[in-house]
Amino acid sequence: MDYLTDLRINRAKRYLAETEERLRDIALKVGYSDEFYFSRKFKKEVGVSPSDFAKNFKKRIVACSTSVTGHLLALNVMPAAAPLDPKWTPYYYNAYRTQIKSHLKLTDPYTSRPFDANLDEMVRIRPDAIIGTDQLRPSVKAKLMDMATTFFVPTENVGWRDQLRMIARFLDKEDQAELWIQRYEQRVRSAREQLDAVLGNDSILILRIYGQSIHAYWNRGLKDVFHRDLKLKLAFRSESSYNVPLALEQLAELNPDRILLVVCPEASSRAYWLALQHTAAWRQLKAVRNRHVYLITSDPWFEYSAVSIFRMLDEAMLLFTGNCPNALLDSIHGDS
């Protein structure tokens, strides 16, 4: 029944967002004969009424960064414009490129292009609100404030939960933020039990190959999911983000039970990875001998938002247990 409810609510969202059909007709299309029961069920599952969802969905809100897009989607807000790129933001590009009507150019940290390159397009959109981060340059912030009501999310020393709550307060969607956080915490408790049974006391090391070198890698998202929430045993950890070069001898000393590995897409990085696999030092590592090396990509592991954190949790479950729960973000936003 939960699965069927997910199907119905998900399809109802599509109708509410993309058509002008009456509520009664949408209820019938998704399998509810009583539109009033449908409305109550929708509000219980989503946090807002169907009419409020449709109204908020169609507001012209511009997201100035990928992380802001991830927060907005967690609040059931589809931005009218957001940075999208098939290479660097494949999840958002593939899932939402038809629903996000205006595709902004990807800027720092993905490319060296300044955000100013998007200003003309944003003027054309005539947004109702603009949400960016406090990392935008003061001159850019001033121009955005002239266009529409703005909110700049603080990034330093502010966790994703508080960032989500701040954006929710700006958009008057606090209930949706708390619902998302509550569901995430429930998923964490379930994941922790399952992972304890599989991993036991295994140590985990996250590595990044760039060029001709190996780096121990750590960022805010990994810290939140692996250390704070899942409480996994880490072979190398710091309180701050890092990208520390490691010699093969140092890697042998750490000798983790499991390795998560990011190989940068440059040709030199890929070539080094191919060569590394044939070296005795690599093949003698415990994780390699036990076939516990997991290749991961920058998406979602390098982003920091409510959606990316949830996706990291599900990815960890899939990597370590072979099972992935029906992702909350898929049952809310995607086609089931």
From TrEMBL:
<comment type="similarity">
    <text>Belongs to the bacterial solute-binding protein 8 family.</text>
</comment>
<dbReference type="InterPro" id="IPR018062">
    <property type="entry name" value="HTH_AraC-typ_CS"/>
</dbReference>
<feature type="domain" description="Fe/B12 periplasmic-binding">
    <location>
        <begin position="60"/>
        <end position="324"/>
    </location>
</feature>
<keyword id="KW-0813">Transport</keyword>
<protein>
    <recommendedName>
        <fullName>AraC family transcriptional regulator</fullName>
    </recommendedName>
</protein>
<keyword id="KW-0732">Signal</keyword>
<keyword id="KW-0805">Transcription regulation</keyword>
<feature type="domain" description="HTH araC/xylS-type">
    <location>
        <begin position="1"/>
        <end position="56"/>
    </location>
</feature>
<dbReference type="InterPro" id="IPR002491">
    <property type="entry name" value="ABC_transptr_periplasmic_BD"/>
</dbReference>
<dbReference type="InterPro" id="IPR051313">
    <property type="entry name" value="Bact_iron-sidero_bind"/>
</dbReference>
<dbReference type="Pfam" id="PF01497">
    <property type="entry name" value="Peripla_BP_2"/>
</dbReference>
<keyword id="KW-0804">Transcription</keyword>
<dbReference type="InterPro" id="IPR018060">
    <property type="entry name" value="HTH_AraC"/>
</dbReference>
<dbReference type="Pfam" id="PF12833">
    <property type="entry name" value="HTH_18"/>
</dbReference>
<keyword id="KW-0238">DNA-binding</keyword>
<dbReference type="InterPro" id="IPR009057">
    <property type="entry name" value="Homeodomain-like_sf"/>
</dbReference>
<dbReference type="InterPro" id="IPR020449">
    <property type="entry name" value="Tscrpt_reg_AraC-type_HTH"/>
</dbReference>
